[in-house]
Amino acid sequence: MDNKMFFFDIDGTLIDVNKDIYEITDASKVAMDELKSNGHDVFLSTGRCKCFIVDGVSSYPFSGYVTCNGGHVSYKGKTLYKTVIEPEAIMETMNLCSQYDMNYYFESNDYIYIKDRHDPTHVHFANKWGMKDEICVDHFDPYHIESYIGMIYCNNLDDIPVMIEKLSPYFDIQRHRSRHSFDLTLRGTSKAKGIMELVKAMHRDMKDTIAFGDGRNDLEMIEEVSLGIAMGNAVPELKKVANYVTANIEDEGIQFALQHFGMINQR
């Protein structure tokens, strides 16, 4: 098999905090190691920013990173592509959250800018998803930060329509598995766009790309790559566009699919 570029989502693909899976399984690590030993590149492709990647994932030696839903792309420690949120979009989000008691998160490589680090909803959210307190900054100037993606948490579900109305001019708003939280991805930005920029920078070809995902923010990626694989626990709309649906994360879906396509040895 020609050298390929493999892209792995984090939440619901490599780990699942809802099932207390906070690190890459041993079977997935062995499978990715075999891919690398066979000359393939193994990348992360995630909605999380670099500092929000949990230790159980960041400890693995990936070839490069497509983070922030494609808003930041790096390879061998060098930034290849980024899209930066304008201060006006951050200010609009901050004002909205103050008015409607929502929580916001604006993510960079090193810090996440938040409304209030002591807010009980934030503390619960951070503990569940592995957001370390030392990366959270709740006093900042929106005109002097660089952020590549936002998140928003709506405490009251009735406020979601006004949130979408106010922020849609700036962001593509993608709902998480939780009914309360959403990615705020800059319009025109996606994991697919980030992957295409990485492929171009590396002088490779999209025909060499393979991706694993499970969520709504994986839709463009799974459709754009040469082989898009949905986890068994993926949302229904992703399964519809995937080339192949593998097993659930807890049933070693990554290993199962790679063996199915003859990309690693049977075990």
UniProtKB/TrEMBL annotation:
- Fetch the Pfam families from UniProt: Hydrolase_3
Q: Which domain of life is it from?
A: Bacteria
What GO cellular component entries does it have?
cytosol
Q: Which organism is it from?
A: Kandleria vitulina DSM 20405
Care to name a GO molecular-function term for this sequence?
Answer: phosphatase activity
Tell me the protein's name: HAD superfamily hydrolase
Note the InterPro entries from the entry. Cof, HAD-like_sf, HAD-SF_hydro_IIB, HAD_sf
